[in-house]
Amino acid sequence: MENEVKAFIKKHDLLHEGATVLIGVSGGPDSMALLHFFCKIRKDYHLNIIALSIDHGLREEQSHQDVEYVRQICLEWKINFYETFLDVPTYKRSTGLSTQVAAREMRYRFFEEQMRRFQADFLALGHHGDDQAETILMRLIRNTTPNGLIGIPVKRRFATGQLIRPFLAVSKKEIEAYCQVYGIKPRRDPSNGETVYTRNHLRHNILPLLREQNPSIHKHMQALSELLREDESYLHQEAKKVFHSIVQIDNKSEVSFNIDDFLRYPFALQRRTYHLILNYLYDNVPEGLSYVHEQQFFHLIHNEKANVTLDFPNGLLVTKSYTRVLCYFKNNADLHYEFTLDVPGQITLPNGSVITSVFTDNYEEEQSKNVMILPDSIPPQYPFLVRTRRPGDRMLIRGLNGTKKVKDIFIDEKIPKYLRDSWPVITGQQDDVLWLVGVKKGKVESDIDKQRYVRLHYFQKQHVGGSGQDA
């Protein structure tokens, strides 16, 4: 076993000379064997070893005895030792988390604090090959994505260094044998023998059956994990290129993309781009986000309806409108505003776009969609009101005998539904709609013999792609 673990450490570059290594030690077989193993190799690597032990407050006196046992072993083996008490039951009640999730959150927070305290290079944990096999099987049962089948990482960035799992190379049986060879008498958690939990059921009932067919099942699972991780690393980099190419970042909590651009890429990259979008928008991906949401997202992409909206966890909305998809949070949806624009003058809209007004002597026959020329009439139309639409807004349209609802103009011009409530409308002194900015100009008497005109110019904010943003 020792040679296997050493070869595994070398293969994955899990240690370097002179490193400070923190070791999570519960007193059980896995962590005690890990602590002993590091004691054996510390002179070879000139390691500074520190054992960390936690009383989670879940098994009363037994938890306290576990910590005391680890303390005594560390004294005997001349290892620096630090302990803490974590009130998991209280944290569980205050957060509504399950016992396991609450304990994990508090435990890793403590580990991170100690990594920074000691400026440690590595945090070593005792997960082994059977843990890897159980994790992959459990995720398969729970309808995971291919990425979930990667399982437990051998190493990952953590606080000031890396979290490493050298025992993924070996099985639980090998660890138990190691403890016997070196006279290690670990503590036992009675709950590990219960089969009511999914993981324990897999451990005691399913894995033994698989091991009958292949005694090295844990090695095959680890090899599968490593191959999938290499493939995923490459696909992730390709997906980041897609993200930076097609995703329009409106702000930190709002992105959009063109559906046709999105569908040009293989489905493997579409899926990963979807996850990059979520990682960009969520500070922490919520526990309630599942594979079902991914299925709903892709159903929305292919939905023939012009306007469809999905509710994701924590107030995230995913809206399809014609050819675009917008992802944004509900608290960003209410963007009603009202500004006064004098002449000359300038206003900046909430989205960063700018509208200017100046006097001009020239009447431009050919006007772009972002420019409108109005006669400087008496009485004047200005100061103008720049606002969002209101129920019942109508506009005089050139060529029509009467007015048309602003709502119907939006539909005819295929303005995405999610943009309509925040779209700028310019009205005159009588609150008559003069310009649906950048979309439709109202019917205005344009006397070209006038000596002076008002020129309105809309400078639409140029949205940026994903470059420079961490996806």
Automatic annotation (TrEMBL):
Q: Name one Pfam family in it.
A: ATP_bind_3
Question: Which terms are listed as keywords in the entry?
Answer: ATP-binding, Cytoplasm, Ligase, Nucleotide-binding, tRNA processing
A single GO cellular-component term from the record reads: cytoplasm
What does the record give as the reaction this protein catalyses? cytidine(34) in tRNA(Ile2) + L-lysine + ATP = lysidine(34) in tRNA(Ile2) + AMP + diphosphate + H(+)
Q: Which amino acid positions bind ATP, per UniProt? A: 26-31
The Gene Ontology biological process annotation of the record reads: tRNA modification
Q: Record keywords: Transcription regulation included?
A: no
Judging by the UniProt lineage, the source's domain of life is: Bacteria
Record SMART domains: TilS_C (SM00977)
- The catalytic activity of this protein is classed by the Enzyme Commission as 6.3.4.19
Chief location? cytoplasm
Annotated compartments = Cytoplasm
GO MF, one annotated term: tRNA(Ile)-lysidine synthase activity
Give the Lysidine-tRNA(Ile) synthetase C-terminal domain ranges: 384-458
Q: What is known of its domains?
A: The N-terminal region contains the highly conserved SGGXDS motif, predicted to be a P-loop motif involved in ATP binding.
PANTHER family the UniProt entry points to: TRNA(ILE)-LYSIDINE SYNTHASE-RELATED
The family assignment reads: Belongs to the tRNA(Ile)-lysidine synthase family.
Q: What does this protein do?
A: Ligates lysine onto the cytidine present at position 34 of the AUA codon-specific tRNA(Ile) that contains the anticodon CAU, in an ATP-dependent manner. Cytidine is converted to lysidine, thus changing the amino acid specificity of the tRNA from methionine to isoleucine.
Q: What is this protein called?
A: tRNA(Ile)-lysidine synthase
The gene from which this protein is expressed is tilS
